[in-house]
From TrEMBL:
Pfam families: ABC_membrane, ABC_tran
Keyword line: ATP-binding, Membrane, Nucleotide-binding, Transmembrane, Transmembrane helix, Transport
Subcellular location: Cell membrane
Residues in ABC transmembrane type-1 domain copies: 41-325
Keyword Transmembrane assigned: yes
Membrane topology category: Multi-pass membrane protein
The protein's name: ABC transporter ATP-binding protein/permease
Amino acid sequence: MPNSSAAALAGNKSSGEIKGKSFEAFKNIFKYAAPHKLTFVGVFVCALLGISADLLQPYLVKIIIDDHLAQGKAEFGFIALMAGIYLGITFISFLFTYLQNNLLQFAGQGIVAKIRKDLFHHISKLSMSYFDKVHRGSLVTNVSSDTETISQFFTQVFLSLIRDGMTLVLIIYFMFRLDTTLAWYSLTILPVIGLVAFMFRRYLRQAYQVTRSRLSRLIGFIAENLSGMGLIQAFRQEEEQTRRFNEHNQSYWEGNMREVRANVLFNRTFDILGNLALVLVVWLGGMAVFHHTMEVGVLYAFTSYIRQFFQPINQITMQWNTFQSTTVSMDRIWKILSTEPDVKDPLPDHQTVLKADEAHGKVDFDHISFGYSPANPVIPDLDLHLDAGEMVGIVGTTGAGKSTLISLLNRFYDVNRGSIRIDDIDIRDIPQQQLHRLVGLIQQDPFLFTGSVLDNVRLFQTDISREKVTEACRYVGVHDMIIRMPQGYDSLLSERGSGLSAGERQLISFARIMVFEPRILILDEATAHLDSQTEQLVQNALQTVSKGRTTLIIAHRLSTVMHADRILVMKEGRAVEEGTHDELIAMHGYYEQLYNHARQATEEE
Ligand SMILES: Nc1ncnc2c1ncn2[C@@H]1O[C@H](COP(=O)(O)OP(=O)(O)OP(=O)(O)O)[C@@H](O)[C@H]1O
Ligand SMILES: [Mg+2]
């Protein structure tokens, strides 16, 4: 869609650099076509046979006219035979064109499905730092419409090149076979066609790009409006938004009309040129027939070929647009496919296996330092050690770096300095898949997938039994809520669980953790959405789940962390105070302030 924006981006770079990259992109995307080599050979053969059959027809008529009718022979049997052959050829043309189209679609769609699959797989492996930089909407475009453009390349552009290219060559061949002089005359029109096509092509491409970008703006506007509908109605923005929508709609309409006009003009101009050429042939050929230097049948065949001459040229120039967008799409897709994730799995001979059921859960942050950008360290230097099975609470100001610490333990990002170890193994040496089974994370806004409640709890792992899921849900107190839903555990959740309250979503994610039983449990503001009664329920469940597990609880509410074995107070990426609740109160520091503040608030209530 945003071809124009990509073109604008490309405009910032030197054209040499772009050309080199385009070539690399082309080369690599074309590798996807390699397994379909044989199919493409099949397409080529079918196209050749189909086109030959098509183009033989006028020649056949010429034979009938010149060799029989014009000579006054009355061989009805022969003419009937020729008519039969003509019909047979029509059938052959139909058969091979059908085959050729099917084979081509088979290969083209196969190639694109594979690209789409690889692209999605690759994107899901990229590091969080990548998603911080790249607009997610544009990734959606890459996976959906850019791959579609590439599909058009393989199914339309490629077909046009084969089919129309061959048609042209064969027509020219037949014309020269029939009459060399007339063929040369006909070819004089070629430069004119070339010039017209070139001029229109530029204009059409521009018009096409304008419409595309207007359409993508329109779609973006609709999507934004739909997701913000509540706000729009609450602030009575309906009129204003409708006015803005009409503006987008109108400009898209105008763009479309411009494109349509240009298209019609282009095609008609081509028709006129075609008719001019026909007039030329009839005039010159007619004179020749008149002077008996040419047979009538030859003239007939010639006029048929001249009519068919323009169609392929028209087609090929029209495909130029698609070809241009394909280069842009291929560049963009290759750019994603060639991006290496910042966070890499250890090499097979460097990795250490740490199975979830064998790990103890000792965690060490050894003087780590980290910043999302190197110039701006969020955690300058932090040294924190958690014993296996210990429960540690973290409190601190907003933006202190608490969630960042958790992201580092999950390896969403890698530390800049120092190291994080689990059971004395650097987490960079543990395959990420194992690490994520080891560490269970519950965030403030849990992510629910489109699917049943059951599958959301067991994360689509069908080897986890329904009983285990219900048990976990009972445990965190969400079972009653679930069975009240129309289909119970099989109720479908849509779009991130939009039909549930924030607290209900939260409880489902608690059940998820209970099912997966990670060695290390992390809660980042996980109880913030729950009322105090439900929180108490979850606290109780948590006491049991966290038994024997290393647990890290981040919370603004002190009541959540008060009972932890140890509490860490963070401020600007540093641990400023540390100890049990009582020890911290006795310190008369930041924690005591927080505590007094919270107590005051509850008393006022
Ligand atoms: N993806 C990111 N890219 C750049 N900066 C970020 C990113 N995420 C967080 N930050 C910055 O890092 C700092 C620490 O953020 P973090 O989310 O760790 O704070 P926090 O302690 O969890 O705060 P809160 O209590 O509000 O959740 C903040 O200044 C924030 O602006
Ligand atoms: Mg946070």
